[in-house]
Amino acid sequence: MRGLRRVRDTPGARTESGARAAPGARAASGTQAGAGVRDASEGGAKRHRPWLRLRLPRLSALRLPRSRRGRRLAVQGVMALCVLALLPATWMRMGSDARVGTTADAPAREVAMVFGAGLWKGRPTPYLAHRLDAAAELYRTGKVKVVLVTGDNSRVEYDEPDAMRTYLTGRGVPDDRIVSDYAGFDSWDSCVRARKIFGVDRAVLVSQGFHIHRATTLCRSAGIDAYGVAVDEPRDATWYYGGTRELAASGKAALDALFRPDPRFLGPQEAGVTEALASATP
Questions:
Q1: For the chain, where are the alpha helices, taking DSSP H only?
Q2: Are 167 and 119 in contact (CB under 8 A)?
Q3: pLDDT in tens, 167-185
Q4: What angle do CA 191, 203, 153 make, to 5 degrees?
Q5: Using an 8 Å Cβ cutoff, are 147 and 167 in contact?
Q6: What is the pTM of this model?
């Protein structure tokens, strides 16, 4: 049972044209004006034209405090900013660490939930493919009965859930055991929609290690009894980029968990998960 599609037109790009600056004018005497400098016979004084004057930033504004107390306060301020930046990610890791493991550690739940991670030429990226491989393993070992794929379908040419469905069916997961959420625009939206739209109250979440703690914390805040499966990845440039990005994303996630806003698109309740579970019952 597929969720509701939401398609957004991409606005056209706007172009701007600028006028070319006119070349310098000649002096009234017929001699070409220099770069704002009069002839030496007129006293040799340099008079710069206002439109050619270059304003450099004042270096004094970049100077560090000269006093020992001022330098100490500056260092303490930088340290405080670093602590504030790391606090949300640390809170999420500590709060969900006992609920994150591997596919072998995962408890039996009826639903596995896979978060989108981008497409390349219409197919799942390697990171998303690894998430789907883990979900297919959970299904084959009998730990889950239904896979909920949640991703972005905000544009006609970009459809994460359908690409995820195609990949899973190619890995042996029956099509009627896959449910698509087409409005999972971010982790919070996916968690809230899983609970409010699809009626999921217990699930195994599947994502990479740098993201799974945030996903588990958010789904628990949305009312889902969640366990996270951390898909292992090599420590390459993509992994480090994802880990760095989590620092900024964790700040937004902390605000989402605190204020619990509605997702970008909520919509009516859907029976996709219920129907898929009914078809899985012998």
A1: 68-96, 126-140, 160-170, 187-196, 209-221, 237-259, 272-280
A2: no
A3: 999 999 999 999 999 999 9
A4: 40
A5: no
A6: 0.71
